[in-house]
Structures
1.
Amino acid sequence: MQRFSALSLLGRALTGHRSWAPQWRRASPQPAYDALIIGGGGHGLGAAFYLASEHRLSRVAVLEKGWIGGGNTGRNTTIIRSNYLFDESAALYDHALKLWEHLSQVLNYNVMLSQRGVMMLAHNLHDVQVIKRHVHANRANGVDNEWLSAEQAQQFCPPLNIADIRYPVLGAALQRRGGTARHDAVAWGYARAADALGVDIIENCEVTGIRRDAHGAVEAVETTRGVIRTPKIGVAAAGHTSVVMKMAGVRLPLESYPLQALVSEPVKPVFPCVVMSNTMHAYISQSDKGELVIGAGTDAYTSYTQRGGLHISAHALEAVCELFPIFRRLRMLRNWGGIVDLTPDRSPIIARTPVPGLYVNCGWGTGGFKATPGSAHVFAWTIARDEPHPINAPFTIERFRDGYLIDEAAAAAVAH
């Protein structure tokens, strides 16, 4: 990859970046590839990168109907953690967290990982019991998590109001390795690294159909930029996964909902970690620009829109104002929504499908960003070898038929 001296970087900056080269090529579709990835978010770009870097597939393309990072990867609240309840989930998310810790070095791109800690609040006896169960389950799986008293929680996050509140804080779980990363940088870093390995990243290329041969296996995709032949297709299209899979005759147990977030005007560094409250239904962190990043819950209706009901955002802001009274006078700059795809057990599907050559990575609901490198890594393995990696082996489509559910509704917490 191209490197520049500090003096060269300064000179380029002073020219208004006019001399900067694009971070990846504007590739045109070729007639055929060894594998295609549908979806240019973090999971899709990451899978393409690992297909090229670890599995040596020489002809790989990523098809994105819009622009790179324009879907959920660029529309989330950037939180990273691995304190999920069940063994299968703990293995998957901690695999991702371990990859996060070295991702900037692997991609030679600063993804701005900040392991500032993620704290989950308990407000009643049920919360205490559920969260302590998570702490013990995580420790049994070698995942860091610890219980804090209300006073210890306030020490870790001084702006937190623990007593003068409708739902007093009784304690909290803290995963110190959790934190945040820059969502745009993750997409750009994977895109640049994949491009350097020869992956074609094709934007403004919407898939309109999936062709199957006489034996039922995939053989090509139809796009707005022509037909592209391939024996392997990996679908990582987030909230639109069910739409894409229907083109191949595959139905999935997914529902798509809007999920909203907001940011405030920027202020000086005042918030040291990530705080989540499932009972009060809000979570908050502070960005590097000083904005408070606030997450709300999912809307109550299915939709493919990237906006949601105003009352959902209002409810989240009410909760934040109770938990952190010092923020009550802050002005909000903007809000937005993403489209999340939920499975019945709130755990993802990373698997082969009944159609030979067709693979799917979906159903992340509100937790997809934190799993990005781990999900992409095992998805690439599954596509390249036509068999699951041991980590994603439990996350099949067939589990909904056979009853082997991985119910992470509680661990998904307040919708992220």
2.
Amino acid sequence: MMKMSKILCLIMAAVTALAGFAACTPSGGSENGTQGGEQNGDSDGLDVQEIIEAYKGTYNVTMWVSELDGIVALTQQQIDAFEAKYPGIVINAAIEGVTEADTASKIVADVATAPDIYCFAQDQLARLVQAAALAAPPEVVANGVRAANDAGSVKAASVGDTLYAYPMTGDNGYYMYYDTSIISEEDAESLERIIAACEANNVKLRFALENAWYTASFFFATGCHSDWTMDARGNFVGVDDDFNSEQGLIAMKGMRKLAQSSCYDSNAEIFTDAGVVITGIWNANAAAKHFGENLGATDLPSFEVDGKSYHLGSFTGNKLMGVKPQRDEKKAAVMALLAQYLTGKECQMQRYEKFQWGPSNVSAQASESVQSNASLAALAKQNAYGKPQGQIHGSWWDIAKVLGAQAKAADSDADLRAALNTYQATIDALFSEGRGQKSVGRVFESGDDFPAA
């Protein structure tokens, strides 16, 4: 116990030196510290030099980062800067580029051989917690992470009140790029006018409605929700979902209007023949290349059903960095310190400057260059209508993604109702009796009308 207390104190001292957060007391507890510089130590009298002496050595570290060109090289540069900040602490890093979409599947298959540090999209957090593949930061580190990043990213990295990961970005959301030569700023506010302009100019409106992450935008627009409940161990135990409702039918009608138009295309990862693409910051360069001087970027439009307007919603999300639990307590401390450094303001700004990744760090978000970025400005505008992506049962993505295709194929409102009934029945089947709560929506019989709002 004394050894662990000392290790935690060293971590706390490092955090105090970096950011002036809580410091470790001689008894192993914590107290609020004042803003500190690199020479300031904690209440044990430890300064950065003492921490360096305690951690001195070479650490073999395996890492998975984004597979995008240049990320591996930048990460190595950032590790070099970490070593310069802490001379004597040598990080012998083996860095591999792996798409964040595959991270959890690869890690939970064999946690023992998983990398020490890895990056992933927030929707994978629950699976990684369940697999005991994440070392929760010591509370003083967690407090520093909470203070440095926006509330949405902190929620994305947490299960309940426990922070399990380190926010890296705050840009995992979507908005609209469009051709200003055919769509005015005013027309960009209306889905109907956008469709008309794209059809008239024989260009595509690319919106991935057969991907649940985007399909949800129509349901969020009408006020629907799908909120999942987990226990403290990361197990899903229930869901409050009202997609199968009067408001859900309105969402399906809105999707049908778009999906059945001649300009609609569900592939939003290419820009060929596009007048509008619903996508995110990862396609900023492609959008600039395709639209050129006619590039417009803004929030999603509104659609109309039965004379009422509904502004399209969206998921808001983050990319996170995780640390695998370590047997060696000293290495565990260094991994926590390194992960905090790699997700701090300086490193987030470097990723923004090179790759336009939007920061989750609130100080970085306030910088002039971030504030003036057109894509991030569009995302911020859309986020006013966004819903932070919490932890969602992995099966939901396949269950919900068919709604877009079903809206496209529907010949009548009865077809839309049938699609929603099937959706709810499949959701309910995830929770057998005694294992969890079922969704709150009710199944509608053939020909049944929705209840009055």
3.
Amino acid sequence: MKNATQLIVLSHTRFGESSIVLHTLSQAYGRRSFLVRVGKKTRMALFLPLNLLEATVVENPKATLWTAHGFRSCHPLSGIRNNLYKNTMTLFLSEVLFRVIKDGAREEGLFDWCQRQILTLDALESDFSNFHLLFLLDLCSALGFSPSFEDMLPFAGKHAAALRGLMDASFSEALLLPLSGDVRNGICEDILRYLEFHTESAVNVRSLAVLREIYDESLC
């Protein structure tokens, strides 16, 4: 059975010399991985983190790993791909999604929420240094936790006051909230600890170190 399906790329891993396993999020299948054949002419840029794609999925009830082919981009995301900082942010956010959302999980509305977030980041022309923090807070709500500041307090460190300011502000106000690199990193780690607790998973995000390095004081 073949289905045209919209997918959000979370990551991919090599599988032999001519294939990858593509880890995705979709409305139809939730969090699911597909076997994809690749060759010298394959545009690997299609599989960058958080890309929005359409593909043909071949369902096979006898196989645990279905296949997908005929990939095309639904949105070019030029606002992200032409910006080093946004690209780094998508690497971090996609890894969080990959680690927090269980394989096979189908959270109602999660695909639509994630797609809106990606398109919002793509459209922002400036003042997006706090975006990943708002993404993480909103992800908690998208997963059904809807944290208040009191819920977050046991996980908040010395930057609790700044976290409260972020949570109390509107989206546009929160984007403009002046935070140092140290405070921003601290809040990020606080929210990740909250996610670890509620998803019962180790959110050991390797790309966080890259995000810390590139989002230095120059972006405050």
4.
Amino acid sequence: MGSGRRTAPPRSGFRRQPRRGSRRARYSALGLLTHGLAHRQWPRVWHDHDLASSYDVIIIGAGVHGLATAYYLAANHGIRNVAVLDRAYLGGGGSGRNTAIIRANYLTPEGVRFYDRSVRLYETLAADLNFNVMFSQRGHLTLAHDDGSLRTMRWRAEVNKLEGVDSEVIGPDEVKRLVPVMDVSAETRYPILGALYHPPGGTVRHDAVNWGYARGADAHGVQIHENTEVLGIDVEGGRVRGVRTSRGDVSAPVVVNCTAGWSSLVCALAGVPLPISTHPLQAAVTEPVKMFLKTVVVSGTLHVYVSQTDRGELVFGASTDPYPSYSMRGSLEFTEELAGHVLELMPSIAKLRLLRQWAGLCDMTPDFSPIMGVTPVDGFLVDVGWGTYGFKAGPVAGEAMAELVATGRTPDLIAAFDLARFAEGRLVGEKGAAAVGH
């Protein structure tokens, strides 16, 4: 049968094997392994560049907010002469230290509309970027352990419904159906009276989101400069002129501060004070086990939240540490308190081993809402003050800030989050949706 001639393997190094029942060929496992180890023909996800002397826009911070802003500037508005500067590595700040929870069930109408837009952008992000960000809409449960919490859940549910967001208050039996390992008995120390159930909520891989936006921005011509620390911001005549970096001075008519944890320090370089205090937020992860937790579970009363990754690990978090600090070291007190509160909800997981813990920095504002838009310095814009919400808002913040840069007009979606609201008494109080850092 056949000519008897041996067919040479493809030039890529893969060895083709015939697929049973089909004429199409597939790559062998050995070929895939060889290709993976050799990294042959794999293009760079983003590229290195020499730092130019000027750009149309400089973005400080190569996390999800900075990268999303750069991507939408190029993709939606054709502004490609953009530099994203980070003093460390891409996604190494808050975007690499969060617990990757996405939701839109906030308390204020302004917040609900804003985060709902972000959820919708996340829903199509993998297709938009042609990069799998592993978004899983598994649902989000916020537990109520007393009458006051239950009233707040009903309040949030009604605000959500008025804004077209899917949220409802459910009882203990429905909570048990969604999370069979949950202890909903009346004999517990913190009985579950109900919960706010938000089906569109879920999780997304934070590193994949960063890499997807970086690759997309790079493909549009945006330059990403890692290990480039901003040491000063040049302001002349009330207008920004550029920045001074560890690699030299760079001029630009627009500078956008998209940093987290260090936002008040960066703004101080431009002479713009912010009503922000910075607090550590700790989290931890367990060994992987068989999937059993399909939803994200949050308890504001116990200051704890938990979700399970696709690899089977349980990711835990709590509220921010009660003192301002720039330390990102974990503490034994956090671990002990966290473990005790999780076991109040799910006693059956007592034997799980904790693998590691970490901390990130959260910039907290007086009303628990972000600060976005213009500042008293012309051309110096801010996208800061995200507290525990930053990763959830990455896509919509980038989209809105890009529109502001391109048009010179503040989008209605972020108008309520301006810096001037603190002086004018227009606070957007989201503390009712922020009883725990999640």
